[in-house]
Specification:
Blueprint: E1 9-12, E2 18-21, E3 24-27, E4 36-42, E5 45-50, E6 58-64, H1 95-101, H2 105-117, H3 122-136, H4 138-151, H5 158-168
Antiparallel strand pairs: 1-4, 2-3, 4-5, 5-6
Helix pairs in contact: 1-3, 2-4, 3-4, 4-5
């Protein structure tokens, strides 16, 4: 065994891909979990060397020195995280779910955002949306679901309220404005000197 005093103190990498030195945690690459490393200080930095590398001892991590309770973690030492709830694509596991997702992209957006918000009784609300689509048309319900998703409205009766609002909304046509020559409005000439 060669003289290894220059490499520092020996540590074993934990299952969390960290080592402890001076009661402070420092991350190392996740590929060397349960292996031996050497850790030494170099000025204000901690240098970590992998002892049992096939290429021989090599530096695997370098961190600024830290104190207990403030771990020095480098995200590059860990594998990429799995996609979260927002990046997941809904998949139907039953005929009812397939009927709901068949309504269109608004239904998918509603389901993703409702799940992220922790909506309760989502299956019942999905069945209600399918029933409303039979009465009012899939396109109108899909549009109302998209509006609910954008507004974050996942409560009981929210979909029906938005759907009825959209169906009751009529475009108000304002009359064209008459020119001053054709108006029946009395002249304001009497007010010209007011306040002088």
């Amino acid at each position: 065994m060669p003289h290894t005093l220059c490499f520092g103190q020996t540590r074993k990498v934990s299952w969390q891909s960290t080592i402890s030195l001076g009661a402070a945690l420092y991350s190392v690459p996740s590929t060397i979990v349960d292996e031996r490393v050497w850790a030494r200080t170099d000025g204000s930095e901690l240098v970590i060397v992998h002892a049992d590398s096939p290429q021989g001892p090599r530096e695997v991590a370098r961190h600024e020195l830290t104190t207990p309770g403030r771990p020095a973690i480098n995200d590059e030492h860990y594998p990429p995280r799995p996609p979260g709830a927002i990046e997941r694509v809904p998949r139907a596991r039953s005929a009812e779910e397939a009927a709901f997702l068949a309504l269109g992209p608004g239904a998918k957006a509603w389901l993703i955002k409702a799940a992220a918000a922790g909506t309760q009784r989502a299956r019942r609300k999905m069945a209600e949306a399918v029933d409303l689509a039979k009465l009012h048309g899939a396109e109108d319900v899909e549009h109302a679901l998209a509006v609910c998703a954008d507004a974050g409205r996942f409560g009981d009766g929210d979909l029906a309220a938005i759907l009825s609002h959209h169906q009751a909304a009529t475009v108000i046509a304002f009359p064209t404005r008459a020119s001053e020559e054709q108006t029946l409005q009395r002249s304001t000439a009497a007010w010209e000197g007011f306040g002088r």
